[in-house]
TrEMBL record:
Keywords: ATP-binding, Nucleotide-binding, Transport. One of its GO terms (biological process) is carbohydrate transport. The gene is ugpC. Belongs to the ABC transporter superfamily. The lineage of its organism: Bacteria, Pseudomonadati, Pseudomonadota, Alphaproteobacteria, Rhodobacterales. This is Sn-glycerol-3-phosphate ABC transporter ATP-binding protein UgpC. It comes from Halocynthiibacter halioticoli.
Length: 238
């Protein structure tokens, strides 16, 4: 089991509450997309799951374990950001291996993992290059490689494609989908892009002003939007 369970998850910055008691069950191996307009609380929610933001109220479980107080590195999650902060002085192989070195993984195992993950992501020919000599799409693949080698129970994506041009975005979307099919890791993916949500998600969670408006499959939401906000946001008839 490696689902994620949010129970009344709330975030306040001082007096200002920005996430208002969210309930959500993400099933093992499921690909769930949080979608909603800018400022609705998507990143804050994801960062609370990652442990990068303290939870003001509510309970969070990952893989059946209550983790509110657990440090980010011990939560078995890996996050992929929009700004793939790669180490500029390290080549692709060393960037991918970075998290493993910190954990004192044996050298032979690091080498075989970098090889395998590089192969999965189509980076085999680029392992010796520095990030500056890669395209945007290749850099984003390295960032994903760094997440994959850690073999997390859950992947968290925060708008990973929004810095890429339209063509590359479409291509990377397909790759993320293929990767999810192959690895089967529970994924929570944040975007403000409706098309991205519709194409990637097993289930979509529509957020608005720190609340969940509706949860359902892309088809559910398209055919039976719960309210005019969901209908308008996803572009289906009211
Ligand atoms: P989204 O990712 O959906 O665009 P965020 O989760 O980043 O939205 O932000 C949700 C709300 O919380 C916004 O109104 C934002 O201004 C506010 N917010 C985010 N981070 C902070 C912070 N560190 N201090 C105060 N307010 C914040
Ligand atoms: Mg955000």
């Amino acid at each position: 089991m490696s689902g994620v369970s949010l129970n009344g998850i709330t975030k306040a910055y001082g007096q200002l509450e920005v996430v208002h008691g969210i309930d959500l069950e993400v099933q093992e191996k499921e690909f769930v997309v949080l979608v909603g307009p800018s400022g609705c609380g998507k990143s804050t929610t994801l960062r609370m799951i990652a442990g990068l933001e303290e939870i003001t109220d509510g309970d969070l479980s990952i893989d059946g374990r209550y983790v509110n107080q657990v440090a980010p590195k011990d939560r078995d999650v890996a996050m992929v950001f929009q700004n793939y902060a790669l180490y500029p002085h390290l080549n692709v192989a060393d960037n991918i291996a970075f998290g493993l070195r910190i954990r004192r993984t044996p050298k032979a195992e690091i080498e075989s993992q970098v090889k395998e993950v590089g192969g999965i992501l189509g980076l085999t020919e680029y392992l010796e290059r520095r990030p500056a000599d890669l395209s945007g799409g290749q850099r984003q693949r390295v960032a994903m490689g760094r997440a994959i080698v850690r073999q997390p129970k859950v992947f968290l994506f925060d708008e990973p494609l929004s810095n890429l041009d339209a063509k590359l975005r479409t291509q990377m979307r397909a790759e993320i989908k293929r990767l999810h099919k192959r690895l089967g890791v529970t994924s929570i993916y944040v975007t403000h892009d409706q098309v991205e949500a519709m194409t990637l998600a097993d289930r979509i969670v529509v957020m608005h002003d720190g609340r969940i408006e509706q949860v359902g499959t892309p088809m559910d939401l398209f055919l039976n939007p719960a309210n005019t906000f969901v209908a308008g946001f996803l572009g289906s008839p009211p």
